[in-house]
What does this fold into?
Amino acid sequence: MDDLKISADDHIDLGYLPRDLWTSRAPAGMGDAVPHVVDRDGHDVWVCGDATWGEYRSPQWFAQPGRNPLALDRGGVAEEGRPVTPSKRLEDMDRDGVSASVLFPPIVAMNPDDRELRKSIVRGYNDWATEFASAAPERFIPAAMISPVDPASATEELMRVAKAGKLKQVNFLVNDVTLEMHFEAWDPFWAAAEETG
It folds into this structure.
């Protein structure tokens, strides 16, 4: 049997996520509160409410003179949305000899103060990741996003993801993990994690 080459620490960068990921899934009435892309002085950026989260890698981003090169540049395939287009990601994995990829959520805190908005953001990302993985379930292995600021919501999302059975792990953004996660309020979450495996 051939050895498998598994990329065990990939991240879906915020800049590559589909620009309609949250706007197409937003509950009625949330409007511009959900993360969306806007043009600011000729640069596309992700915004959520009043907060700017980071750049969106649109064609104008790739056309910037003097920008830092990416791994995709070295492969000659730098383009908008490539890492989140299943067929193109599979092409890149095949080129690099990668059998499977463990995909973690973006390395950006997505924890607005509004609880329902925060839940919508987490749910929206996890639903998108499930759909993305379904294109090649043996090769794409995404981790679900879990917000570390609300134990009840985290437990609810863990159970929802486990029940769906498509995503096999959950992930806290390491910079957001706190000591409070060891306190009693988080016990139901850890119990649910143990129960669901």
